[in-house]
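Sequence only, no structure available. Ideas?
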Amino acid sequence: MSARPFRDIKRRKTKEINVGNVKIGGDNPISVQSMTNTLTTDVKATINQINDIAKEGADIVRVSCPDKESTVALKEIVNHVSIPIVADIHFHYKRAIEAAENGAKCLRINPGNIGDKVKIHEVLSAAKNNDCSVRIGVNAGSLERDILEKFKEPCPEALVESAIRNINILEDQDFFNFKVSVKSSDVFLSIAAYRQLSKVMDYPLHLGITEAGSFVSGSIKSSIGLGALLMDGIGDTIRISLSDDPPQEIKVGNEILKSLGLRNRGVTIISCPSCARQAFQVIDTVKILEDKLSHIKTPVTLSIIGCVVNGPGEAAMTDIGITGGGKGTNMLYLSGVQSEKVLTDDIINKVVFEVEKKAFELEKKK
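Reply:
I predicted one. Tokens follow.
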């Protein structure tokens, strides 16, 4: 499908930082990340989950490091995964130092919670010495006491003031390799805070609606919140926070970016909700195809429409399309042009073959 002017999103220009081999900000693609929910000290389980997250298409993963045993475990974990690790640190500055020394490529901290300037200096020295970036992670649920007293409740101005305070702490230590987040579980609060912050600083922004909820409700809240910001050109890396299996967060994150034309990865399926006009079982077919085509990373568009009302129009705008016909036969479209009739029982195998063929052809052209 060709680009259309009304779809153009002009991204806000930010500084570029590194999280391991992943570049964040600048003109780089918006990255997608998740967080493990295993015990970090269970090295095998954590490695397996990180690899599952990476397989789903993650660029970065965050790992909680609440104690020394967890930071020690990082040293083994980083040797068996392919994506950079962000160490989630709260309060104890030694955990941050250990994480940087044991292979973490980013530290998620609030410098103001670390302690005095000596401790902050030690953390940032460890980060510099180990090519480790920092994420300033402001959260509406854990604002500094004096800021909360000043504003009486979490509000956009409170989150932004906390972020600026922590930014100043890092800049005073001549440390600039960092990104910032101002998260809340409230969609309106999050959007307003990110919009305000984006106007007063140009460091990369990590987007998220924190504690968003279960798969359905959390996906909807995150899509609304992150979608509004991304359409404003705000955001350099995202995390969808779901009470679900972490790879599901990556799936939702990638779909949000794909729907906005901000990232092209894998097969994009356009399908109808089905009705009495459908010539084949659309819903079941789509579910099977999603599973069978999940291994494809090359951008390919596919339309699965159960009847001829909207089918030909959708097929004209996708790489491959199936439109329901009559008497057990359906029409296959390739690059928007009618190709051949396909029996209902053959739809799955035919579509998989054509999508894999298209992906192979596109890869050869690179």
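The two ends are 18 Å apart (CA to CA).
Hope that gets you unstuck.
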